[in-house]
Amino acid sequence: MAWLWWIGAGALLGLLEIISLDLVLIMFAGGALAGAATAGLGGPVWLQFVVAIVVAALLLFTLRPWLLRHLRARVPLAETNVAAHLGREALVVETVTEHEGRVKLAGEVWSARTEDDAPALEVGREVRVLRIDGATAVVADAPAPKRTDPGHAGPALGSTSAAS
Protein backbone atom coordinates (compact mmCIF):
# COMPACT_ATOMS: atom_id res chain seq x y z
CA MET A 1 0.00 0.00 0.00
CA ALA A 2 3.02 2.33 0.44
CA TRP A 3 3.44 2.46 -3.34
CA LEU A 4 0.10 4.29 -3.55
CA TRP A 5 1.46 7.14 -1.39
CA TRP A 6 4.46 7.42 -3.70
CA ILE A 7 2.18 7.55 -6.76
CA GLY A 8 0.10 10.27 -5.07
CA ALA A 9 3.23 12.29 -4.27
CA GLY A 10 4.45 11.89 -7.87
CA ALA A 11 1.09 13.01 -9.27
CA LEU A 12 0.99 16.04 -6.95
CA LEU A 13 4.54 17.02 -7.91
CA GLY A 14 3.62 16.59 -11.59
CA LEU A 15 0.63 18.91 -11.17
CA LEU A 16 2.75 21.51 -9.37
CA GLU A 17 5.27 21.31 -12.23
CA ILE A 18 2.53 22.43 -14.61
CA ILE A 19 2.25 25.62 -12.57
CA SER A 20 5.97 26.29 -12.14
CA LEU A 21 7.35 25.06 -15.52
CA ASP A 22 10.88 24.93 -14.09
CA LEU A 23 11.51 21.24 -14.84
CA VAL A 24 12.45 20.69 -11.19
CA LEU A 25 9.33 19.28 -9.61
CA ILE A 26 8.89 16.83 -12.48
CA MET A 27 12.33 15.41 -11.63
CA PHE A 28 11.18 14.96 -8.02
CA ALA A 29 8.05 13.28 -9.38
CA GLY A 30 10.31 10.84 -11.25
CA GLY A 31 12.05 10.08 -7.96
CA ALA A 32 8.67 9.48 -6.31
CA LEU A 33 7.74 7.03 -9.07
CA ALA A 34 11.03 5.20 -8.52
CA GLY A 35 10.15 5.04 -4.81
CA ALA A 36 6.75 3.61 -5.79
CA ALA A 37 8.44 0.95 -7.91
CA THR A 38 10.70 0.03 -4.98
CA ALA A 39 7.69 -0.18 -2.66
CA GLY A 40 5.82 -2.30 -5.21
CA LEU A 41 8.75 -4.74 -5.34
CA GLY A 42 8.63 -5.07 -1.54
CA GLY A 43 11.61 -2.90 -0.63
CA PRO A 44 11.85 -1.54 2.92
CA VAL A 45 10.87 2.08 3.58
CA TRP A 46 14.46 3.26 3.99
CA LEU A 47 15.35 1.81 0.57
CA GLN A 48 12.29 3.47 -0.99
CA PHE A 49 13.52 6.87 0.22
CA VAL A 50 17.10 6.21 -0.88
CA VAL A 51 15.97 5.15 -4.37
CA ALA A 52 13.61 8.14 -4.64
CA ILE A 53 16.36 10.60 -3.64
CA VAL A 54 19.02 9.06 -5.90
CA VAL A 55 16.72 8.92 -8.94
CA ALA A 56 15.47 12.50 -8.36
CA ALA A 57 19.08 13.74 -8.05
CA LEU A 58 20.14 11.89 -11.20
CA LEU A 59 17.21 13.32 -13.14
CA LEU A 60 17.80 16.80 -11.76
CA PHE A 61 21.51 16.92 -12.59
CA THR A 62 21.56 14.96 -15.85
CA LEU A 63 18.20 15.06 -17.63
CA ARG A 64 17.11 18.59 -16.66
CA PRO A 65 20.18 20.41 -18.09
CA TRP A 66 19.85 18.43 -21.31
CA LEU A 67 16.14 19.24 -21.58
CA LEU A 68 16.72 22.94 -20.90
CA ARG A 69 19.50 23.14 -23.48
CA HIS A 70 17.31 21.57 -26.17
CA LEU A 71 14.24 23.58 -25.18
CA ARG A 72 16.13 26.88 -25.41
CA ALA A 73 17.59 25.89 -28.76
CA ARG A 74 14.06 25.46 -30.16
CA VAL A 75 12.25 28.32 -28.44
CA PRO A 76 13.89 31.74 -28.13
CA LEU A 77 14.08 33.03 -24.58
CA ALA A 78 11.69 35.94 -24.07
CA GLU A 79 13.04 38.46 -21.59
CA THR A 80 10.50 39.46 -18.96
CA ASN A 81 10.26 41.73 -15.94
CA VAL A 82 13.33 43.89 -15.31
CA ALA A 83 15.48 42.19 -17.94
CA ALA A 84 13.00 43.20 -20.64
CA HIS A 85 13.57 46.91 -19.91
CA LEU A 86 17.37 46.94 -20.07
CA GLY A 87 18.52 48.86 -23.13
CA ARG A 88 15.03 50.17 -23.92
CA GLU A 89 14.43 53.77 -24.82
CA ALA A 90 12.30 55.97 -22.57
CA LEU A 91 11.06 59.56 -22.69
CA VAL A 92 11.83 62.03 -19.92
CA VAL A 93 8.58 63.44 -18.49
CA GLU A 94 10.15 65.17 -15.44
CA THR A 95 13.76 66.36 -15.39
CA VAL A 96 16.04 63.47 -14.42
CA THR A 97 19.02 64.13 -12.15
CA GLU A 98 21.26 61.80 -10.20
CA HIS A 99 18.69 61.91 -7.37
CA GLU A 100 15.23 62.07 -8.96
CA GLY A 101 13.12 62.32 -12.08
CA ARG A 102 10.51 60.49 -14.11
CA VAL A 103 10.51 58.74 -17.48
CA LYS A 104 7.84 57.09 -19.58
CA LEU A 105 9.03 53.54 -20.20
CA ALA A 106 6.94 50.99 -22.10
CA GLY A 107 3.79 53.05 -21.57
CA GLU A 108 4.31 53.45 -17.82
CA VAL A 109 5.78 56.33 -15.82
CA TRP A 110 8.81 55.21 -13.82
CA SER A 111 10.91 57.01 -11.25
CA ALA A 112 14.34 57.52 -12.75
CA ARG A 113 17.80 58.86 -12.04
CA THR A 114 21.07 59.25 -13.89
CA GLU A 115 24.44 57.80 -13.00
CA ASP A 116 26.48 59.77 -10.44
CA ASP A 117 27.95 63.03 -11.85
CA ALA A 118 25.96 62.73 -15.10
CA PRO A 119 24.30 65.88 -16.44
CA ALA A 120 20.57 66.40 -15.88
CA LEU A 121 18.26 65.19 -18.65
CA GLU A 122 15.52 67.61 -19.62
CA VAL A 123 11.84 66.91 -20.36
CA GLY A 124 11.21 65.50 -23.84
CA ARG A 125 14.66 63.95 -24.21
CA GLU A 126 15.00 60.31 -25.23
CA VAL A 127 17.07 58.20 -22.85
CA ARG A 128 18.22 54.60 -22.65
CA VAL A 129 17.72 52.37 -19.60
CA LEU A 130 21.05 51.18 -18.20
CA ARG A 131 19.68 49.17 -15.28
CA ILE A 132 16.82 48.98 -12.81
CA ASP A 133 17.56 49.68 -9.12
CA GLY A 134 14.51 48.55 -7.17
CA ALA A 135 11.68 50.54 -8.75
CA THR A 136 13.96 53.20 -10.25
CA ALA A 137 15.28 53.17 -13.81
CA VAL A 138 18.87 54.32 -14.11
CA VAL A 139 19.07 56.08 -17.47
CA ALA A 140 21.55 57.81 -19.75
CA ASP A 141 21.19 60.06 -22.75
CA ALA A 142 20.22 57.98 -25.78
CA PRO A 143 22.54 58.40 -28.77
CA ALA A 144 20.95 60.31 -31.63
CA PRO A 145 19.75 57.97 -34.37
CA LYS A 146 21.75 58.05 -37.56
CA ARG A 147 19.74 59.84 -40.20
CA THR A 148 20.49 59.79 -43.85
CA ASP A 149 19.14 62.34 -46.29
CA PRO A 150 17.80 60.40 -49.29
CA GLY A 151 18.05 63.53 -51.47
CA HIS A 152 21.79 63.88 -50.94
CA ALA A 153 23.91 60.95 -51.99
CA GLY A 154 27.24 62.66 -51.31
CA PRO A 155 30.36 62.08 -53.33
CA ALA A 156 30.87 58.59 -54.66
CA LEU A 157 33.80 56.68 -53.27
CA GLY A 158 36.84 56.89 -55.48
CA SER A 159 35.54 59.87 -57.47
CA THR A 160 37.47 63.07 -57.96
CA SER A 161 36.03 66.52 -57.83
CA ALA A 162 38.43 67.99 -60.36
CA ALA A 163 36.74 69.28 -63.48
CA SER A 164 38.15 68.21 -66.81
TrEMBL record:
Subcellular location as annotated: Membrane
Gene Ontology terms describing biological process: proteolysis
Membrane topology: Multi-pass membrane protein
Entry's transmembrane regions: 44-63
Protein name: Membrane protein implicated in regulation of membrane protease activity
Organism of this sequence: Sediminihabitans luteus
Protein keywords: Hydrolase, Membrane, Protease, Transmembrane, Transmembrane helix
One Gene Ontology MF term: peptidase activity
